Amino acid sequence: MHPALKGAKGARLPEARLEEAIGLAQAIDLDIRASLIVPLLRVTPATYIGSGKAEELQRLVEQTRAELIVVDTALSPGQQRNLERATKAKVLDRTGLILEIFGRRARTSEGVLQVELAHLGWQKSRLVRSWTHLERQRGGFGFLGGPGETQIEADRRLIQERMARIEADLKQVRRTRALHRKGRDRVPYPVVALVGYTNAGKSSLFNALTNATVMARDLLFATLDPTMRQLSLPQGRKVILSDTVGFISDLPTTLIAAFQATLEEVVEADVIVHVRDISHRDSTAQGSDVDEVLEEIGIDEKRRGRIIEVWNKIDLLAPDERQAMINSAERRPRTVAVSALRGEGLDRLLACIEQELAAGSNEFEVHLDAASGDDLAWLYRRAEVLERTSDPEGGSIRLRVRMPAERVEQAAARFGARWQRHVPDRKGSEQAAE
After folding, report:
1. Are 134 and 151 in contact (CB under 8 A)?
2. Domain CATH for 381
3. Residue whose C-alpha is closest to residue 152's, from 132, 170, 167
4. Least confident of 14-23, 50-59, 215-224, 412-421
5. Is 302 exposed, middle or buried (0-12, 13-18, 19+ CB in 10 A)?
6. Are residues 345 and 402 both part of a single domain?
7. pTM attached to this predicted model
8. Can you give the residue range of the structural domain that contains 78?
């Protein structure tokens, strides 16, 4: 069920929202007996949809013999409890449904921890609903608390303690990720992160670019745990391509907070590729939802202006519409129309990634004493060393490096006159051109 508030903000169509809600329910193998849009003039504090609509819903539950009602909005604990009483069926709101999906999709230990943390935070706020039958005083034995502690207080304390342990474990995950990033800095390979609305085709694009076998199905949240592979660009430059969890409208803040360790890969990426299902009728609204999440995790306006936008699934468009979409993408900066399924447009995408990386970095030359181990290590950590030559006597080293624009000033301050912009050899360039 999708409650449609009349006059509500947002360009998303109620029919598309209901279709998405059905897809979410099917993602955990629920048997859909009925679906409907409930028009609302206003939200009713007690049940969200009002007593009359709740009675209609109760009759529908009886007719279809349904055991669960999925409401495509965030309900308060009280609203959820009151709806369950009115309809005599279990009620699950949008946040709870997404948490159920994530719980099933998580495969790595990190993913399981992140989902559990989000679920505990959600469950903690619903102890009043879930445990009202245990509102009684307990004795002072066992681990559930001392004298005078109610069952709700005990369970809330246990949840809080478990959340604290998970958060400590996730801090260690963040430290490990930071070490991995330092390892990549020493290589160094730039990181290209794929982001996008769930089911936009990120995993299909990831597989097409890297010849990997990441799960790619027409299913919401088919990919939850991040995957990384090495990718070679047309001119030979190597990058790390990262496939991340799909975003969705009204993504629970508890999930964004819990998945901060994973989303750090996006924040730290050198290039962000926003994959959109351009064939979807709500593609524009989905793109706006992704932009909002990127802003929430710390992608500032300057970096958002350099995101590559990929219009995927052009194979699903009619021929004339498909060609118009390709022409439109070619007129826009950092925009590529592709079909990940058919491999169309991938060469243009790789060239665009390479161009974006080149725009964010510059080539420089630096001359060092052979004994300057600290300076040498500093450069290898922060720049891509393209060429290294030593003088015949071995007393000095000349390096040609490519450095991201944001680190150039720091390097210039460290090396002074020894740090100079690289000027390609004109004769060599002419010979190469011939």
Report:
1. yes
2. 3.30.70.240
3. 132
4. 215-224
5. exposed
6. no
7. 0.70
8. 2-100
